[in-house]
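Checklist before submission:
- one chain only
- standard amino acids only
- sequence pasted in full

Submission:
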Amino acid sequence: MFDLAGKVVLATGANSGIGLGFLMGCAHQGADVIVWGRRAERNAEALAALKQAGAGRVHHEAVDVADEAAVVTAFASSLAALGRVDCVFANAGFSSRAASFADLTTETYHSLINVNQHGAFYTLREAARHMRDRANAGDPGGSIVVCGSLSIFYGLPGMEHYAAAKGALAAMVKGMAVELGPFGVRVNMLAPGSILTGMTDDPAVIEQLKARFAAKTPLGRMGEVADIAGPAAYLASDASRFHTGDIMVVDGGRCVYSA
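Returned file contents:
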């Protein structure tokens, strides 16, 4: 049901963390994979791991998604390398926190929006163009997935800029789902809870994070990158062929826990 042999999956921000976890889930099902990340050497390391996990053909592009021209060029180069793209995961982004909303600087706001929102928009637009054109040529179908956040659902002080970007993308997903549905293309958002992504290797900090989020999560633990693999395989495969316009929350129950 989740067989991805012959399907090409592209993810941005994919040489580590959630992006790599998404591609790992697809690689385990035999997908061809395309890694986009800013650092070529990290991309190459990710490709080696994906190949070992079962990926078919592999390709990478060193690209900063905040650069519109770079995104257009990289998508064309990816198509030239593997011929098509069946699933795109727009994941590239970062988070930052201000002392308060009143202290959030314009520079900090625009710096994050340029990557998290605009970068995703450039990526999603190229994916939509490709899948629409392919459908018009007689080959409909495809899956577009956007990385969301629980910040869409509840307030995070000092991170209103981050939440604004994710909220804008959640709205964009719904419009795209309606517009691209006639071409057989599904568009969904994957909203992870707190995922331990390797942003720190300090054992003490890691244990503090695990304890903090375990106390707020019904399943009793912090999320791991491997927890993204199953949802990725589902959303990239034909198993999700009637699932579109949705925000899929993968948070161990955090959103429904009121304590």
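Reviewer check: The chain has a mean pLDDT of 96.
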